[in-house]
């Protein structure tokens, strides 16, 4: 198996999508994506995962433990990947560059969002007014602009809108840490914020 890793050969392929792997265990875990199976569940909240490692990382949320600390500023994280990304702030490194204009970013998600500017794609839109944006938070700004015009305590929507604003703050915090369109929380908050935008119309 070590020789396979050295040569870069990936002899094991997924029958559903064709993705290849060097280890049978990795292929087995990958197949859970297609089956939707999540065999590892959290005893505290019931959330389930495809790998034991993902469950272990999730449990740190409940314990409050952050085992990975930055040697420069002392800020701590639950995963080594988050720490690695954080360290780019101190080093000034921006490893993800745009092929079109050369602008660079610390996160791959930021690069992906930036590339929408060049492609002209606007993936977020309001079902009510048709306004389209590159970023989800820009759609929220449209909602907030309308809300300010109607922001009076006598308006029955006022209390509900305040609650939605608090929801947005939670969403934005998650988005900053986990800017990926495949993350379950991201998809959940995208739905909540996108649908909340229709209230002021």
UniProtKB/TrEMBL annotation:
| Domain C2H2-type residues, every copy | 12-39, 40-67, 68-95, 96-123
Q: Which Pfam families match?
A: zf-C2H2
Per UniProt, subcellular location reads as:
Nucleus
Output the Gene Ontology cellular-component terms.
Answer: chromatin; PcG protein complex; transcription regulator complex
What molecular function does GO assign, one term?
Answer: RNA polymerase II cis-regulatory region sequence-specific DNA binding
Q: Which UniProt keywords apply?
A: DNA-binding, Metal-binding, Nucleus, Repeat, Transcription, Transcription regulation, Zinc, Zinc-finger
**What is this protein called in UniProt?**
C2H2-type domain-containing protein
**What domain of life?**
Eukaryota
């Amino acid at each position: 198996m070590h020789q396979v890793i050295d040569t870069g050969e990936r002899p094991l392929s997924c029958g559903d999508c064709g993705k290849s792997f060097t280890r049978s265990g990795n292929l087995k875990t990958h197949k859970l994506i297609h089956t939707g199976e999540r065999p590892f569940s959290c005893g505290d909240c019931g959330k389930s995962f495809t790998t034991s490692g993902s469950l272990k990382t999730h449990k740190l949320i409940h314990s409050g433990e952050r085992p990975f600390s930055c040697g420069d500023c002392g800020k701590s994280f639950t995963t080594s990947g988050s720490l690695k990304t954080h360290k780019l702030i101190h080093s000034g490194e921006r490893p993800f560059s745009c092929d079109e204009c050369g602008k660079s970013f610390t996160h791959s998600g930021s690069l992906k969002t930036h590339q929408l500017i060049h492609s002209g794609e606007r993936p977020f839109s309001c079902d009510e007014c048709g306004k389209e944006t590159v970023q989800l938070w820009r759609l929220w700004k449209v909602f907030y602009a309308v809300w300010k015009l109607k922001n009076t305590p006598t308006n029955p929507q006022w209390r509900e809108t305040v609650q939605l604003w608090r929801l947005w703050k939670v969403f934005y915090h998650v988005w900053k840490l986990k800017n990926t369109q495949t993350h379950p929380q991201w998809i959940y908050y995208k739905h909540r914020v996108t649908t909340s935008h229709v209230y002021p119309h």
